[in-house]
Amino acid sequence: MIDFLKTAVDEALKSDNGHLDLFLRFLLGLSVQSNRRLLRGLLTQQDGNDQSNKEIVQYIKEKLEDNLSAERSINLFYCLNELNDQTLVKEIQTHLSKGSLSSGDFSPAQWSALVFVLLTSEEGPEEFELQKFKKSDECLSRLSAVIKTSRRALLNDCNLTDKSCSALAAILGADTNLKELNMNNNNLQDLGVKLLCTGLKNINCKLEILRLCNCSVTEEGYKALASALRSNPSHLKELDLTGNDPGQSGVKEISDLLQDPNCQLKTLSLCECRITEKQCGILTSALKSNLSHLRELNLSGNELGDSGVKHLCDVLKDSHCKLERLRLSNCSVTEEGYKALASALRSNPSHLIELDLTGNDPGQSGVKELSDLLQDPNCQLKTLRFLSAAADEACQYVERVVGKNPLLQRELKLIYHELGDTRVNQIAALLQDKHCRLNTLISLCGVRLFVSRVLVFVCSLDWILVAVSWFSCSLLDYSLDFTHGLTDTTRRSPISTDHHRPSKSLCYHSPADCLCSHVSVLTFLCVKL
């Protein structure tokens, strides 16, 4: 009996299409003690059941160490289930429950067990995240069967190289559920991207989102991507190439792709890709020739300048433009670029709903030019972003407490509003931002604010403290001397503020980074130089 069962296992493993898989499971199920009576009369000799059961279980486990294909190994686990042996599966489930999979060195049988557990999980393989396991090329290769059945594969920040790309190309070229592939922050280089492109070209590839941020891709990789997507343009909707260097020809390759009427890209991110004003002109020229698909464009972190923004404005003015989100943070845009954007959006106000200009310099009127757009009933703009997260928190806070937008003010009073450390940091971020045109800040703070920290911020931002008042106080005999920041703490005569120093400096009598229980309220007036 045992020899017969071993032969059946061997024959099933030889099959390329798995046509013996169900037969093997059925046969092994019949071989257990509870079902052995069904075989009476068919077998002339019966082995001791317990011993033969253990022997065939061990034989199957030995086969699992042979680096079988995922399909064959999965069937062997179903066979072990028929034989009432779940030792390998329970071992892997223990690792999963403890979260210790990332630290273990697995045998081939354990890898197979992990694949089996993940594929048969009740939750289903909707999303696969490699960081939960081991961040390596080997782990990706071992778990490729799980990736193949997932809709989202999050493989970012996993120390992957071009070695993983062959396995991924095979997955992309197969009939899979995979719709999103995130490879951000892996050193794939051009070779890895070219390998991925063999899968992207395949007509079976249904990938919709591809993220390749900071993957060391150069113009050669850009060329391969553009070629692959022209070969199979109908599915990919989102492409993120943030942090890669397209070189001289990479932007042109992507631009040619955008001109293809079959290109379905809706979201394109070329953030921090060293794109120049000239390359921006090439990109916008392509966009003008095919305005029907792209909905989101991220060009943040590129030296576009006002000239580059004006090229984009030519696209925004077009009545056929369907662009909804435009991100231009840290693009060296000045007041002239802000005015061009405002003019373009006034001439075609119906589509853009989000504009990000964080980290640019609006000059005297840039903020007002664009803010006035929000009053236009035809304008669809819902989000106009000027500030970093911290500065935006401060802006919203100020608008709540004083009822005015601080970006449109020259003087700000925060009288009778307690400012904690977090709020101080946020307001400092707001003062630093070039979108903030405040030149006078009056604030009254409770003593639980570290006063010296406020003043260090003030003095580092071309601001000067010109007045201090206090009440209900008994100050310690200390003062702080600020010259471009906190420099010295010395004993001085009571309160002295110097209004005549030529640089951003001041003397301020305070508890010097310590809390004084007798001081209840401090008021300070700061003016920008």
From TrEMBL:
Transmembrane segments: none
Short name of one Pfam family: NLRC4_HD2
KW Repeat (keyword) present: yes
Keyword vocabulary terms for this entry: Leucine-rich repeat, Repeat
NACHT LRR and PYD domain ranges (all copies): 6-91
InterPro entries from the UniProt entry: Leu-rich_rpt, LRR_dom_sf, NLR, NLRP_HD2
Highest taxon of source: Eukaryota
Protein name per its UniProtKB record: Ribonuclease inhibitor
Annotated source species: Anabarilius grahami
